Amino acid sequence: MASVVPHVFVPCMVLILGLSWVANGVDFQRDPPCPCSDPALCDPIRTDPKKEIHVFSTNGANWRDYFWDNITTVAVQDGFDPQMMCHAHSKGVRIVVWGSFSVQTLFNESARNAWVERTLNYNVGNFTDGYNIDFEMPLLKSQAHVLTAMVKQIRDAFKKALPYSKVTFDSAYSPNCTFFGRCYDYRSIGEIVDYILIMAYDELDLVGLKAMANAPLNITTQGVDDFIKAGVPPAKLVLANPWYGYNFPCTLLTKNDTCNYKLLTWGQQDYSTIMKLLANNSTTGRKWSEEYQSPYFDYKDSETGQTHQIWYDDPISLTLRFQMAKNKQLYGVSVYQADCLDYSTNQKAVNETNAMWDAFLGE
């Protein structure tokens, strides 16, 4: 991307004034109607869990079927069902919005302030418990301080308007900026936010063009170690794991079961779809990679005759990753995302979904 010259950063000032607050000179009243049958459910969650279990949601219709007793925080997107907030609060679960801003916004002072103002207004009006920053754009090291300042501006605004709120930050599986060009100051960001979520997935080797695990345990572990070496305390790290996998159309399947594929031909598939393919289409049954500590299987497309290889994570592989997070004394674990499971009444699906949620209990 073309380099962008950052503007002078001026933090947004937020002052609590009874039931109103002032942000950048605009006065907001916190008097939206509570959508819950019990108005007390619009009150913020005030207690902090000893261990975080953070689940991403894509605002699907399945939220009533989540295993709420296994969750401490659920991250939703703009436009979420207000009744989801009511239900989360009835279970003592925080509900936070996850989203981001553009690079153009980051490097424009007035746009930054407007974004913070608008985002804070939305969250206060919807009785949420904080914000999850999902900024994933490349930055030069010389630009990193601008992102750090933006993160602090968001944190300060939320903490003043919503004192019990949590502000968190999503990161790629490694802080190494040569991988993604995201040369962020993770140590400073870690000092600002409540915790950093390590998105330990999409760890594919796109150079070798050989099918592999979505989240190899060795690569995930190295990423965690690198964050700690970068100065982020384990107590400020939450490990996010995938509830989806990758489907690779093989151009060649070697004798040692290596699937070669063409660039950009693979696709993501959620766990529920993968389980159906494993049950109905697999030519090999579930196999296990000792190298990646992940399951996979082959199947043949009935229409084209092409062999595919699917790599994914299941309760066994996820438990290994959750245990690693526990051994390294991370603050908790997370999954992306809760709507990847089959919440139907089919007994096989029920068993599979229960096992995925119950994997948290071993953590």
From TrEMBL:
Keywords: Glycosidase, Hydrolase, Signal. GO terms for molecular function: chitin binding; hydrolase activity, acting on glycosyl bonds. Residues 1-363 form the GH18 domain. The keyword Repressor does not apply. SMART domains: Glyco_18 (SM00636). InterPro entries: Chitinase_II/V-like_cat (IPR011583), Chitinase_insertion_sf (IPR029070), GH (IPR017853), GH18_Domain-Containing (IPR051887), Glyco_hydro18_cat (IPR001223). Pfam families: Glyco_hydro_18 (PF00704). Transmembrane segments: none annotated. GO terms for biological process: oligosaccharide catabolic process. Residues 1-25 form the signal peptide. This is GH18 domain-containing protein.
